[in-house]
Each structure stands twice: as structure tokens, then as C-alpha cells.
Amino acid sequence: MAAAEKVPVKRYLRLAKLPHIWCPGCGHGIALQALIRAIHSTGLSQDNTVIVSGIGCSSRASGYLDFDTLHTTHGRALAFATGIKVANPDLNVVVITGDGDAAAIGGNHLIHAARRNIGITCVCFNNTIYGMTSGQYSPLTPTDAYATTAPYGNIDTPFDLCELTKAAGASYVARATTYHARLLEKLIAKGLQNDGFSFIEAVVQCPTYFGRKNKLGDAFRMMKLMQERSVPVSKAAAMTAEELAGKIVIGELWHRPRPEYTKAYDAVIAKAGGGR
Amino acid sequence: MPSLALPARRKVLMQGNEAIVEGAIAAGMRFYAGYPITPSTEIAELASEKLPRDGGRFVQMEDEIASMAAVVGASLAGRKAMTATSGPGFSLKQENLGYALTAEVPCVVVNVQRQGPSTGLPTSPSQGDVMQARYGSHGDYAAIALCPASVGEAYRLAVRAFNLAERFRMPVILLADEIIGHLRESVELPDPSELTVVDRARPTLPPGEHKAYRPGPDGVPVVPDFGTGYRFHVTGLIHGEDGSPTSNPKVVEQAVRRLTTKVTDHIDEIYEAEERDLADADVAVFAYGGTARAARRAVREARAKGLKVGLYRPITLWPFHDERVRAALQGRRAVVVPELNLGQMAREVERVAGAGTKVVRVNKVSGEPLTPGEILAAIEEVF
Ligand code: SF4
């Protein structure tokens, strides 16, 4: 790796708030670093960027980041973020959310933020479990997996949040795992540059609750598993549904620019005869 | 040029819901997020039309919860923000309303009450959310709720709601009812230059020196706007002066208590009530909102019959001013409390009225307003 890639990660952290609350081996730290590096590489100003999160292990990240940060109610991060972005479209707005946060209680806000194509970058730390409340199944827990509320195995079918947000109208959708940290960073950076709603799913390991309950081993083994199960999007295109079962398709899954919401509202203001 | 100094007042016929929007915009509202619900919908409709004319912004959110969340976000971004709803929607907003209270975010929430419980009677008047306005969210806090009894007052209280929200950094509830929301009256709108408009205090210390949640001497913190370089943290978790979550028992105790004391310490600044004919009254009528109109008429008719009756009308419903109400009601033979609910404020009146004063409840939950005749009958009964 080239020396030029040295990123002053600490500059973006509230060092006084560390150590973080995450368990040893948790993937959230890797995802957080990918986000910081993406912010750095795209040159977003620390003073003009707001980080919004919901409630859950991952959502605690907002407290560690040295920006204007908003730690909201469970599932509602995108709704708070929508208010921020509409009120002041000049702000860069980034949302950190978890799978339970974004897809269960926050599912409605997720599809509507995508539908509006509002200029928010949403990074979903998907650990496929409710970590903070100690291991209940989430809308992204795989079928047959075990959880404290699925002691006989999960019968629910998990969402594919990338397919969901793409169908709902997001203009940029991507996915990577913590094993592919550099790819994750690149994908988030591209999402930050997209003028519209960007959704990036970061598949992260939760050794404490998902891993242990499903006998997947430690963080290292869980990441190894991610590596084995991941298929780049280019390769996935030529694979059948059966071949793709249980696989994680990674890379840029969708990018189709279309009018951004607050810009469209600028046109409303112009029509109404108001100045901004 | 003699007339220039005079304010350009306008006399217009308008609906209560319209007056709320006009008042809000005059107070500086530049952001509205809402979800349509009867009988508050005209507020959203008019906001969507008027706001962009002023460079303001309107969003029809996907639900009531999102609307409340967006209002908090917009306010933190520095804009004066409002949402409007009715009973069932107000319930859905309660979690994020509590967030706004805890994170001390100024905003206005209008509840045009309709008959409940549940979906109830969507187009019928009610005063059933009085206790929800006070205690609807979880945990301990103090609420501010203002209650208009005319279209003109709906305008004035919309301005006042924003002013109090900005002053005390908290959500303020404009607790209207369907009677006022849908009533059309001729109102004289003041010239904007006549209005007192309060803007939230902004930090005077530079970033790095300012603590985002350090309370001022009046118990109210000066919270910066997002995007102005302060890089601070906002959370619904109990937090210390820097905004970071804490479970330090001393800090938590102080922080939670301050959410109440910043209101109760300034109750005289917040509280407003109308008193009429009370000086010699043997009997008082305690009425508010749409019901106060019928009560006023009943009092007038009772006076015409020679009965010594007066009216006490709280305009600030919450905080409840124990001393003011006690001073106004104590020693009366009886206090008649007409309400479009089963006695929500009557309980408060009973609490402060004193042993010698009988509290007579006049309640209606049929979806119809109380008539002056019904209130007069109750007055006559106690004489
Ligand atoms: S519970 Fe799981 S997701 Fe939460 S911090 Fe621990 S390892 Fe990470």
C-alpha cells in the first residue's frame, strides 16, 4: 500500500470520548474508519458536515465523530436528517444506522428518503442482529439463523436493503463487508459524491451475539467467512439465483443520477416567487 | 407623510387554522413538516403554499413520527420549525416530542383536537388531549401548552408559541380544538413591525470555548446551530454540558430536574389568563379554548339574570399556575368547569380550589360543542 494513503483518522474523532463501547472484534470500528477515510478523501469539511445516527451499537458512532452530530431516537435517523437537509441544503448530511434501526422501526423512513432522492448518504452497519439489546433477530437475520428470540431458528425472510432502496428510488446503492474495508471506503466516498440519496450497506461482524449464537467463531473467522461468501457484482451478473443463494454481492450495485430533492424544492421556491 | 408611522393593520376574514399559519410565518417559521390529519390539514396546505414564497420550505413527510423528527432536525439546522396534527397524530409524535424536550430544541407543535379516543370522530371538536399535552411523553418534564379561544388569538398564540419555544429552547404546544381550527372570524392582523419576535440566543463564545449545553443563569442553555463550526453532540440520552451522554447520578439528577425548573422558575413570564367579572363573583366558571366562548356567553346571560358569576380562562394551559388559579377561585361558592372531555382540567381545579369550594363538572363527549345554555344551566343549579 502506498504511503500516500495515510489518513489522519484521529483528526475526525473526539478522542476524549474514546475508548468506544464496542466489543472486541466488532466490525463497527472498521466500518467507522472506512467512513472517516471516505470523508477525508472526498474533502468534506468537518464544520459543514452533520452526522446523524439512530439507536443501536453502530449508532453510537456519532458520539465519537468530531462533527456536528445527532444521536436520535430508534429508527428515525433519516427523518431527522431529512429535516436538517431540507432546512439547510448546504450541509453535507451523513446517516449511520444499523439493520434493526433502518429496516424495522425505520423501514418507512428508509424507503421514503430513497423515494425523495434527498441528498443524504446513509451507511447501514448490517450485523444481522440486534446487538445493543443482546441478540434478538432483526429484519436482516438470515432464515434459519439463531437469535435470543429465535431459539428454534429464524423463520423470517431477510430484506435485501440494497434491492429495497434501489427499487424505492435511491440514486446510488452499494455494498461491501468489513473484510473489504478499502472497497467499503471507496464505495462510501462515491456515495458522498453522489448528489441524491446514497445507500451503502456495510456488512459487519458481531461476534458477541450473532457469531456466538450461530457458532461462527471469533471475529477473524467471521471475516474470513465474509470473504468466502462475497461475490463481486460483475461476477454475480453471470450467476444463477441458486448459485447466489447465501452469497453477499459486493460493489457498486446501482448508480443512476436523478434530480435531488432539495434542488427540486429550489425550483418550487422559484415558482412561488420566493428568494432563498 | 403622516400615516407612515401607523402600522399597516389588515382586517381579514379567516379560519383558525389559517390564522395559525399566518402567525407562525410572522413569528419567523421557515420550515414545516407534517402529515395530513383532520381537522388540522388546512395548516399543512397553507404552509405548503406560503412558505416557499418566503424562501421557506415545506415537506409532507411519510408519517407523524417522521414529521416531528424532521422538525427537530430543521430547528437544529437553525430554522424556526413547526408541525401540526390532531389527537392520534399527537400520540405518534410523543417520543420525538420528548426528544425535543430533552435535547432542548425549539419548535412548535399544533394539536387541533378532535373527539377521541383512538380514531374517534375526525371532524368533531374535543378537548380530550389536555392531559396528553402535559404528560404524553415518557419521563419527567414540564410542558408549555397555549390554548386559543378565537381566530385572532390563534394568530397571536402562534407567534407566542414560537417566542416561548425560542426563549426556553423547547417544543411548545399550541393546543387548539376543532371549534377554533375551523371557525371563521374577522380578525385584525397586526403589522409585522408591531410584533415582538424572539430569536433563540446564539453562542457568543467561539467554538472550543462554548459548551453546547451549559445552562445560562436562567437555566436555559445556548445551543449553537449545526454547520456553524461548533461540532457538538446532540442526543436524547441524558447528557452533561458538552452534550455527551452521562450516567453520573449528580449530573443526571440536575439535568432531568432542569427540564422542569426552567419552566416552573419562569412561570409568571409564561403564564397568561383572562379574568372577567370575578371581583364580586360567588361562582366562577373555569373554561378554555372553544368552550370558553360558550362559557363567556353563559356568564353574560347569568349576570343579566342577576347572578354573580365570573369567568377564569387560562390561555396558558400548561404550566398550570397553582397560585394564580387559587387566588382567582378560592372562596367562591363553586367553580363550574365545562370541558369537552370527562374532566381533565377539573381535576387540576379541584386540586387548588380549596375545601370550601365546590367544583362542578360539565362534560360532553358526544362530538358536539357545549352550548351556552348547558353551561348556564349548571351555573343556575349551584345558586
Ligand atoms: S454487540 Fe455485536 S454489534 Fe454490538 S458492539 Fe458488540 S460485537 Fe459489535
TrEMBL record, chain A:
Keywords per UniProt: Oxidoreductase
UniProt enzyme class: oxidoreductase
Stretches assigned to the Thiamine pyrophosphate enzyme TPP-binding domain: 55-201
Enzyme Commission number(s): 1.2.7.11, 1.2.7.3
Secretion signal, residue range per the UniProt entry: none
GO molecular function, one term: 2-oxoglutarate synthase activity
Origin superkingdom: Bacteria
Gene3D superfamilies in alphabetical order: 3.40.50.970
PANTHER family per the UniProt record, alphabetical: 2-OXOGLUTARATE OXIDOREDUCTASE SUBUNIT KORB-RELATED, 2-OXOGLUTARATE SYNTHASE SUBUNIT KORB
Protein name as catalogued: 2-oxoglutarate ferredoxin oxidoreductase subunit beta
Organism: Symbiobacterium terraclitae
Automatic annotation (TrEMBL), chain B:
UniProt cross-references to CDD domains, sorted A to Z: TPP_PYR_PFOR_IOR-alpha_like
Keyword Oxidoreductase: yes
Domain Pyruvate:ferredoxin oxidoreductase core, residue spans: 281-374
Stored NCBIfam families: PRK08659.1
Organism superkingdom: Bacteria
Keywords: Oxidoreductase
Domain Pyruvate flavodoxin/ferredoxin oxidoreductase pyrimidine binding: 22-256
GO molecular function, one term: 2-oxoglutarate synthase activity
Pfam families listed in its UniProt record: PFOR_II, POR_N
InterPro entries given in the database record: 2-oxoacid_oxidoreductase, PFOR_II, Pyrv_Fd/Flavodoxin_OxRdtase_N, THDP-binding, Transketo_C/PFOR_II
Keyword Ubl conjugation listed: no
EC number: 1.2.7.11, 1.2.7.3
Protein name: 2-oxoglutarate ferredoxin oxidoreductase subunit alpha
Gene3D superfamilies: 3.40.50.920, 3.40.50.970
Enzyme class per UniProt: oxidoreductase
Organism, scientific name: Symbiobacterium terraclitae
